[in-house]
Every structure is written in C-alpha cells, then in structure tokens.
## 1
Amino acid sequence: MNILTKFITKSILEKKSRAFLIIFSILISTTLLVASLGISDSITTNYRNLLKGSYEDFNIVINSNEKAQTPFFTLSNVHCSNIKNNFKTCEVSGYLKNNDNEQFNMLGTSLNDFKKFKNIRLLKSKNLEPFTGNKLIISESISNKLNLKLGSKITLNTLGKENEYIISAIASNNSLFLSDSKEKFTLVTPTETTCSIYGKNVGYTNLYTSIDKSNINKWIKKFNTTNPNLSARVLLDDSNLESQLNTIKTCLLFMLCIVLIMSTLIIYSSFKLIVLERIPLIGTLLSQGATKLSIIITFFKESFIYGFLGGLIGNILGYAILYLTVALSNPLKNQGIAAKFNLNYIYLLYGFIFSVTISVISSLIPILAIRKFPVKEIILNNFVSTKVSYKKSFIVGTFLIFLSIASHFTGENLGSLRPYIMSLPAFFMCFLGIILIIPGITILVTFPFIKLSKNINVLPMLALNNIRTSKVLLNNIRLISISLMTIMMVMSMTNSLKDTLTEVYKNLNFDVSIDINSQNVDVLKKCSEIINNYDKKTNVIRRKYINTNLNNDFSKKIDLLCVDPNNFKSYDNYLVYTNKNKQLDQLNNNEDGIIISEKNSRRYNLKKGDTISLYSSNSEKEDFKILSVVNAGFMNMGNINLISFKAALKHFNVRYSNEFFISTSSNTSSIKKDLIKKFKGFPVSVSTKQDNVNKDAASSKEFISLFNIFSFTSMLIALLGILSNISISFVQRKKEIASLISIGLSSTGKNLMILFESFTEGLIAFFITFLSSIWTLTLLSDIFKYLVLNINITYPFSFMPWAALSVSIIMFIASLKTLLRSKKLNLVHELKYE
C-alpha cells in the first residue's frame, strides 16, 4: 500500500461523520433509483407467481360473452383444435348459512379435471368416489378455520337457495386453494351439482387452458374470431397492473431528481471542506516531490470509494424497499404465505454505476480546483481561497425562471395534441433557476440591512456580511430552501389528492352502490330484477364498463362506460361538459355515438366528428362517431368514454348491467343491510357512498405515506448537509474569528454573531421558499394538466408555522457545533503568521 493510499484510508477513518454524510447522500439517491426501476417488475412478478400458483400452467380462461344467450357451453360448442390440456368448471358463488361475511366460490368439475392440478394433494377422503351428489372438497386451511372435519355437513346459500353438502375430502393448501381465507375461499363439487343450482342439466361456465406465452395474443384474437359467442382472455392483464404501478414509479423518479440535486450540493460542499482541511498536507506532499496530478487522482480515488460504499448500501436498501413493497402488496399475506421475490440484478449494476458517477461528478470541481492552487502559498501554509462572483449564476438562474414562465403561459397553445408538453422541463428549469439565484438574492437582501446595522450594532453587520460573502453559508440557504420547497410540494399534493378523491364521490348523486361480481347472464338478470322490484329506492342508475382498444392496438385502451344518458344527468356532477344536457341528449339519440375523455382525445389525437374503430375481446371492429369531449378528471384515471346502453346492446350485445347506484330517502345503513339480505347467496357487494370514500382513501394511504417519508428524508439530508457546510465555514473563518476576538470581540458577542448568522440563514431560506413555492406549485399543477388529470394544487398555508419552527430548530442544532468548536479556538496558532 503506497503512501497516498494510506493517506486516503486514514483520512476517511479520521472523519467518520463526514464520510457518513457523503455515503448517506449517495445511498439515498441509489436507493430511490433501484426502487423506482424495480418496483413494477417486482410486484408484477409477484402477481404472476400468485396466478401461476393458483392455476398452475393454465393461463387462459374462456367463457360466454354478451352475444351468447346463455352463460353455459359444452366442449362441442368450442371451435379450436389447439385446446388439449384444459380444466372445465361450472362456477357459482355464495355464502355460508347465517354468515354473510364468509363467502365462497364453488367450482363444479370432474375428479379427473381436478387431478390435473399436480400441486394439490388429497390429505383425507371419505366416500369421494364416485364423485357425484352434494360432495365437497375443501382445503386444510378452511377445515381448520371453520372447524370442518371429514364427513361434516354444511349448509350453503347459492343464488338464494339453501342446500346441504358433506365434506368428502380435505386437500392441501395449494393451487386452487392457495388464496383461501375465512372471508373468501374455494370449494370443489361435481359439475352436475352446480349445474342443478342454475336449473341446468349439464354445461360449463369457464374453461381454462394453457397457451404458449409468445403466441398468446395472436391465439386469443383467432379464437375470439372463430367463436363469436365465447370470449378468451389472459388470466392476468399485466398492462392494467403496470399502469397503476407506473404512477408510483414516476413519483419515485421525481423524488430522485430532487434528492439528487441535494446530494450533489452536499458532496460538493463536503469535498470543498476536505480539500480546504488538507491544504497543509497537500503542501507537505508537494514539497516532498508529489505532483498535483497524483494528488488529484488520490482525491478521485477517495470519491470513488465513497461512491462504491454508497452504492453498496444503497443497493441493499433498495432491495429491502422492493422486498417490503412486494410483501405489503402480497394478496396472500393474511394467509401467512410469503411472497416470491425476484430481483433483476441489472438494476443493482445500474445502482453501482449511478452511485459512483454522482460521487465523482459532484466532487469534480473542488478536486480539479487543486490545479489552480499556487504551490508556494500552499507549501508555506499561506493559502487563502478567492472570493466567488455570483453574477453569472444569477443571470443564468433568472433566464431559466423566465423560460419556465414562458412555458407556463404558452402551455395550452404548445401544440393541440398535448398542451403543457413542456411542463416537466419547465418545472426543473424553475427549480434549478431558484437554486442558482439564491446567492444573488441573499446578497441583494442583506446589503441594505448591513448599511442600516452599521451605525446601530456591529454584530448583526458582521453576521450579515459573513452570510453574503461565505459560499458555504449561501449553500446552507440553498439546502434549506430545497428541502422546504420539497416538503411544501409533498404537503400540497397530499392535501390535494385527499380533496380530489373526496370530490369524485361528492359530485356523484347516490346513496348506496351495488356491484355484481359475475359475468353470468342468469345472475345479472336475477340481480337486476331484485333491484328493479326494490320498493325503498327513489332512483336507480345503472352502469357497466366495457374494455376496448383503439384500432385493435392493445396499448391504446379505451374504457367504455355504458349509461342511460337521461338518468346519468342527475347522477353525475363530476365530469366537466361544455353543455351537459345537449351532449347527453345527443348520446341518447345516437346508437353509434360516443363521448370521449379529454385525456384520450389528446393522447390519441381524436376530435369531435371523428369516426373511431374500437375492438373488445369478443367483438370485431365497431365504429363510433365522436359526438363530443368531456374532462373526466380523476374518474378511472381520466379514461372515461360514455356510450348509451342502446349503443352497448347494438355493438356489444350488452343486455344487463353489473353496477347499480341507488338513491333513497331512507337511512343508508339500514338500506345497505336490507339489500345484503336480499342478495344473500349472490356474488354481490353492497356499500354506501361513505364506504367508497373510505376505501379509496385507504388505497391512497400508502401512496401518500411514500411522499411523507420522502419529505422527512429530504429534511434529514438537508440537516446533515448544513452541519457539513457549517464545518466548512468554521474552517474557512477560523482566522477571521480569531482576529475579531483579538481586537476585543467578547465570547458572548461571538456566540451571538454565530446564532444570528444561523437564524438569518433560516429566515432568508424561509422567505425564498414562501415566494418560490407559489410558482413551483403552479408548474406542478401544469404537470398534472399535461397528464390530463384534474387536481387542484393548493398552497399549504397551514404548514408554514410548522416549517418556520422546523427551520429554527435545525439552524439552532447546526449552530451548536460551531459554538462548541469556537471555544477550543487557539488564537496563537491561528494568528502566528499574521
């Protein structure tokens, strides 16, 4: 090990707190990068593993579509020679007698088909063969949870009918029984038994088969064309899941950009301190024959080590976050089944490259500055750093802010396809511009106060002059401002998201919603009859979603919402129309008409009067004329496109709805209980409007918590960076402070000056944040407009007192370090060359 390598190792070990700061900054950025890259893959893989565990090799499900007169079919009705390995079942849902909360899905099948699931083992059986009559196969998990033994009898309620069954076998908790819980579980019975519940002799409602993944979309398209009354689809549609996860991924990347700016400043400041502290040692090395190049390479090696360690720990933390995310999103966690976690190791490589790169680039300027150091002054330990002018950075920053202003005011007119297309670049131009102009603003703001305090008290003048002339103290103001702006954005988005979710339901006129969890035509018909005959309703709105794609392109999803336009007028006060009554009347009178969302209009360049071709899983090309455009806001993430039930019947043969919204003058809780009784035995969910609000609030809780964790992390990074900068400031100003003490500055005066510096830094940062956040939040709102998502970004005024208190505490904590170090200042040592 050569002398320079020993020098690096010793320096890192001696300054553990600084090494921790640099590594911490790098590892946070690396963690966010790895987490954002891997989150989609990890959760999607987990769901794929769950599905494969439940249905093993079967990846396609076939059932009757809306064009079929009955939900039942036989193998003779299926026209496809490729279907070999298959699992046939007649499915029905229901509840346990006297317990509406314990629901089941009953699969009617043959024993031969059941045995095709290789992972299922029959643990116990009694009179299982012949597999006929009211025999049941249950899982070991349900046997224990419901205290059911072999030979036990159980009464089940299905489609409003009660029948008694006998437990004939208990199976292992695999495959079909993998996701069994006390609230929702699977039962297996003979096909004839479930058919008799429907009043049929024989038939199937679902056929599961296995198709090669590389050919799956082509096979589905061909099958659906050949079988017009049947619909084949994949068991798991990755595109829907990935679409939801991309929101989280985008937020993590957005966080990464902000943290990266902070980390860069911290690493830069830290290496500035490292170089300044080691100037005497650099002088010694130069006097002994070392070259500036060898010293610069040594510093870069140190930077590389920090990057390597930060990347190593950041990768581990990123892996841990991904593992935790997968575990929390695991649908089987309540059953005690661990999620299977697969990590793409290329992301760890990206993390290492990223961490080393930001470490080296951030330290580039302080290290390369060694080239300009005068050798004589360094060797004689008489080197003084030069003052830095902020005129150029102020001009560049002002220019970037003006560019962001121009982007905002021309946002709606920058191309008819995607208004506010420059919203994201404009936001970061503004953010960077604010960072660049902070020193200039500080110098301008403090100058008149220096003049004012000159004739009143020398301590404020000295403190203000120190702030405007010290690069590290100016960087403190930058760090505080960045962290405060970040927290302001997080708080604003959190409050706005909560308000937006509530706003959707506030503007829908209903009291109780009914969701039928079945595509079975007979079930839909019977449930519709129950709702139509219900005597405590004042109004009923029915809806149904149909998933289609534009021009047979699976990436261009167009979700159709089937409605009765006349009733929909009184139900919907959320969508933004140009003329509500006129637009819905046009929809009611045109069976080929569609009202599309503004989001899809912009995304696919569609406008009023265009004719579009839509394809569903069970229909060929269906042409619709765009009657008008509405702003769908956050409803279904903006992908709401209205057609009438008359159009749905003509184009997709949709005869029944699976969503109903009831208005009533009676108590909603009692109506809910009453409807649950009426639908007992049917696969129906009943909830009040408040239930829906609570459900959406719960689903967004983790998303909002992610933002909150980030805001506190950014504040922690800022605090550590400020501590580092104050250390730099003290090293740079030791001689100045010693000179002031030597000419009469008292210990109390020195302490007051340092405290005044700290609180003034915080006050200026708070003032800059207060003003700049108004504009950054406006640009943040533009980003949502670009995404065509209506969200009202409001300024979080209620948070300002807490922000002021937090900044005061942080600056007081930071100033304590300087106060303690200044007590140990050796005046003779500092002034011996003066």
## 2
Amino acid sequence: MKASFYTSLLLCGSLVSLNTYATQHSNTQWVDTFIGTGGDGHLFPGAVVPFGMVQLSPDTDNPMRGVSPQPEIYKRCAGYHYDDHTIVGFSHTHFSGTGHSDLGDLLIMPMTGEIKTTPGSAENPEAGYRSRFSHDKEWSEPGYYGVELQDYNITAQVTASQRVGMHKYTFNDADAGHVLIDLTAAIYNFENKVIWSDIRLIDDHTLVAYRATNGWANNRQMYFAIEFSKPISEYNFINEDDKRYRCMDCLGKEKHSTIENKAVKIAAGKAVKFVASFDGLKDEPLYIKVGLSAVSRSNALKNLKTELPHWDFDKTRADAKAQWATYLDKVDVEGTKSQKRQFYTALYHALQAPNIYQDVNGQYRGVDGEIHEGKGFEHYTLFSLWDTYRALHPLLTIIDPDRVSSMVQSMLVHYQQSYENMLPIWSFHGHETWTMIGYHAVSVIADAYLKGIRDFDIDLAVEATINTANNPVYDAIPQYKKFGYVPMDVLPESVSITLEYAYDDFAIAQMFNAMGKKQLAKEYYARAMNYKNVFDKQTGYMRGKDSKGNWNPDFNPEAAKYMGPFTEGNSNQYSFYVPHDVAGLIDLMGGDDKFEGRLDALFDTHLSADMIKEHEDIAGLIGNYAHGNEPSHHIAYLYNYAGKPWRTQERIRQIMDTLSSDKPDGLAGNDDVGQMSAWYIFSAMGFYPVAPGDLSYAIGAPQVEKVTLKLAQGKSFTTFAKDISEENLYIQSVTLNGKPLTRNYLMHAEIINGGELRYQMGDKPNKTWGTAHSARPPALSKYKG
C-alpha cells in the first residue's frame, strides 16, 4: 500500500510537471484576468475553466439597498472592482461582464482571532470579517487567483474544475483560525434576497447547504457540498432571522439554531451562516472543496467526489490552466506584447459562457423547475442573446463548432419546457429573465444551421423558431404582424423592437430558404423588410410611430430616454440597425455619399451627457457612436456597403486606439458575456459578421501582424498584415489563397475550409479596392432566396 501510494504520488507529480511545462509555453501566458475589472467592464479575476459552472472569485463588496448608492451596485456587477481595496470573501458564481447583478453564491471567508459574522464596511473593515488587500500582493492566471488578506496575514488561493471550486488558505502566523460560510451574501444583496437556506453538518469534515434566492431570477435554487481537508475542531450555526420558522425537511428541528446550541446539526432560514474553527494550521494549509448543483445536495456531493476526489491543489490548478491552454492555443497571434495581451484576454473572456448547467450524472434543473436528464448533449445556461448573437456565437461556430450544437439543443429544450412556448431571450440558471428585446435565439440557430452545424433536432428547431416568432403573448408580436411595426403607444422601445424583429425574421428566412422551405422563406423575407415602416423619410431617421400611423412628435435623434422608442440607445445609433439590408438602408438615406456623411456625423458629432443620462450602458463614446453598447458594434463596418471601405479601416483603428487597452479599465463598457471581446477578436483579424445568417464577414482592417486559427480536421486559416504599423492602417490589396480578392467581404466557407488571407497595408487609403457594387457584402434588397 505504501509503495503504491508513493508511486501514485510520483506519477501525479510528473503529470503536474508536464502540465506546468506545457502551459508555461502556451498562450495562457498572455492572459491578464484583471483587464476589464476596472471601469465598467464588469469582469471578475477569479478561477474558472472554459464554460465552467463554477466561477470562484473574490468579492470586494456586496452593495445593499439603502447602504450603497445605485451607481455602486452597477459598478460591482461582477462582485469585484479594481478600484476597491477590501475583500469580503470568495463566492462561487459570477456573471462575466453583464450590466445587471445577481449570483455570488456561497461566500467563504477565512479569518483569525475574534469571530466576526458581518462584513463591516470598506471604510471600517475592522468592524466585520472583510480584509484589506493590495494589488501588489494579488496574482492570477487562467483557472487561478491568489491574494494576501492583510488583516489576517492569510494567503488565499482558489482554483476550479467544471463544477467544483477549491480553496487553499495558508495561515502564516496563526495556529488556529476560522472559516465563515455566509449564505446571506450575494452580489446586489437587497432585502429579501434569500427566500430560504439551510446548512447541515454531515461529519467533522463535511457540510451540505442549500439556498433559494430572488433577484434577477426569482426562486433560483443552488445546492452545495463543502469538504474540509482538516477536521473541524469547533463549529457555530448562526441564524440571524428575526422570526422563528419551522424547517419542513429536517425532522422537526427548529431552524433558529443558535451559536449556543451546538448539539443541533442544522440551521435553516433566511439568514443562515456557519463558522468552522480549526487547529494545527501552522503545520499545513487548510483546503476546502465546494461542489455545486442546481438539482440536489446528493448531486453536489457526487460532482465534488467525481471531479476532485483528491486534495492536490497544484494539480487542480495545473489542470485548469491546461484546459485553457487547449483553447487559447487554437489561435496563434503575432503582434506587440500589448496586442497579444488584449487578444488572448479577449479570447479567455469569450470562452467563459454560456456555462455548463448539468451535473456529472446528466441531470439539470429546467426552466419549468423540474429535473431533467441531458441525453445526448451537454446542457448550458446563461444566454445573453441580445448581446451575444452579434459576434460571440458566430465566433464559437469557428472556435468550437461541436459545442455550438449542445448550446442550440439547450435552447430547444428551454423551448419545450417553457410555459410560454418560447426560445430563450435572456436566461440563466433555469430561469427566463425576459431582459432585453428581440427573439435572437433564432439568429443563433439559423446561423449554426447555415454553417453546417446541425447535430440537433432540426424539426424541433423549425417548430421552435416559428412559434417563437409568432408568439401571441411575447412583447408586441401580434401588433408587429398586424401593422408591420410595433406601435409606440403599445410598447416602449418600439422602434428598436421592430428593427431587431426584422433582422431575426431575415435569419429565419435564410434558414428556411436553405432547407428548401421556399414559401416560409418568402414570408419571413417579407417580414424582414418591416424596418422600412419605422423610417421617417422626412427626417431621415428611424422614428417612433403610433398605431394610427402618426410619427412621434417628441423626436430628438440624440435622446436616449428610458422607456422611450429605443433600447439603450438613440435614433442616431439605431437608424443604422438594418444589418441584413444595408443596401436598402443606403437607398432610404439617399445613396452612398449621403450615407457616408451620416456615418461621419455619427462618429464626429459630440453627444451631450444630458441625452444619455438615463442609461448607464451607453458608454465608450466617439461622438454618438457608443462602443460600450451592442447596437453600435456593427456600424464602423457599414462604410463597406457604401463603397468606402477605407473609411471602415480608419474607424476600426480609431476605436482600437482610443477604446481598448491592456489595463484594468481597458474595456469601453460591459463585456456582456463575451460580446465585446468577440468584437475585438474579429476586428483584430480584420473582418466581422455584420449580419449573422448571411454567411459573410465584412472586411475591416487587421490590427495585428498575423493570426492563425486552428480549425477542425487539421485545417488552419491565417491572416497576414504585411507592413502594418501605426501609420500603415490602410489596406492596399488583399489576396485569398494567393489570388487577388477585390471584394470587401469574406464568406464563412472561405474561412472554415482553411487558407491564407494576406493584407498589404500602407499609409494612404486605396480608394479603388472593394468599391464596386459587386464588391460589397450581400444585402436582402440585392437578393432573396
């Protein structure tokens, strides 16, 4: 037994060494997890593996209603903000770059000395369990985070697998210490956040816990299995509820178990915490493993035992980093150090979500609240579709097409389980939030189908697409079908809704056309032209219209009013949201030259802060162009459609140079679950999917010298930017696989089949390349079917 144990230990050490060697020479070295944790990037620096269910990260504050002002809540949507200097603990679930707060499940905080059970404040950390920290003593890499907790002289380190978080706490000058488990903590911890929770002591090493919360998602349930590497010497159940309740599932024991009543092995209620105390901490670190499940306590334990049956923190860290290396090494980039840091960090953020939402035994909690088996596919959650349909999901069709099928299947089972017969709109953790507009799951499904990714139920996809696009209870679909637009007296954000419905209808039509369903395709192509019904020819802008056909009398193209005709934007921005028929939009605006002038006015006209004060998300401004929010992301590429591709090249460089960096505040706004990062990746390579579903990518301007995409079946696609420099920002000529490319767009097949795209760069615009009408990207008014 002893020889076998040491042989296993040596083998384990050899594997860790191999992993360490491999990852030291991988592209993980360029990732800085702190990029986007400052400003309004809303990113977290903690431990996560690609698409992992666990995001184990430090929280620097838990803003509470009535304590912190609303801007502070928005600032800390990810739980951590780089400007902060205290940490309240380490929680296991976080959103990546969203503009809304929730999660922060199961906060753990180590401490020494006096036991404290409230967090205190950033101004007075001694009043609670929080600790000061310094960025000088803080470290991270993909799959790992570490920090010195100064108030306790504890070195805290965390890493993760798919469903399990692992903690390592080194008590540097104390032999005894404590660990607080706070089930009340949450990101945006408002009153009545916790509906119910409990924590149970199984033995002197093991706890299981549960909590249900209200927040962005209501009655969201999560289960936890917690295991310590050392036996608990003392423990305290703490219940801070003002009232007494009866626990319905713990054999009649009262949930208000107190610190004095140590014989009781469970506490349950709405304000439950637990403190575990340990001795002998000078001899070796304390390790903690936490398994997550949305299904049950037993599943949380099974996830823990299956994924991390050992206590080897270094191996877990190396395994997490190796998973990241596998993905990050799918792309090789040549450029400056700053460019590589930005590119690979963007790729790291783009591959964090959607998240696995399924236990190791295949079970998951569906949107109907029931427990289901994921048969034949992995189940995913966190579909921020208003953001991610634009670039993130198209990027995944290139980087990880096999995973896309499971994501589509996850959307389809959401449809089957939904009482409203809808595909997801903005969903996470088995809940539909109904946040944002459009029915953009159809774009993701259509784009995948058109790219040959079809390992899902095609008949069900057709059914779900039709029922979603014609659902009589969602937003104003009946009025949209009746009037050809959404009247502003029926629903706020009516113009944006109309425009985004029209794009979605185009994506549906493209899929049906490819399936040979010509009559259905014709119907949706016609619906896709509805954008014209909210274009006011007199003003030249998209404009609200009521059900009687009267234009909005209170119209200002710069105004972005809450509950007005536009969604997190104004008419200046949304007047360019016709990605599927830019040629038709150019005609409406008076032709190529006038369209170019309108684009210039968007970028060059200062936008008053008074016009956007009601919307925190309108950020990263260049004139009226708002790079920090999604409705602007395609706009710089629209010069191509007017035969002025060199203007796109200028704008892309302008955006890159002024709104991106490799610093903590290096994002212009919310990363929005990888969408901002996906924009950066595409734009750095020199092309962008303006209208997912038409299979084309508008060519912009490469920003790095060379990028190689390692594709399926051993293929690769490489972009070269010869002579690129600060001055040489203009494309002089392009070749594809050695042949001149005179059009200003690529097709998906040309990328996925592999090859070489070579840009010759120069310091003056080439005003002949890519300018002909035949050289411009496709548009609905140019072809139908």
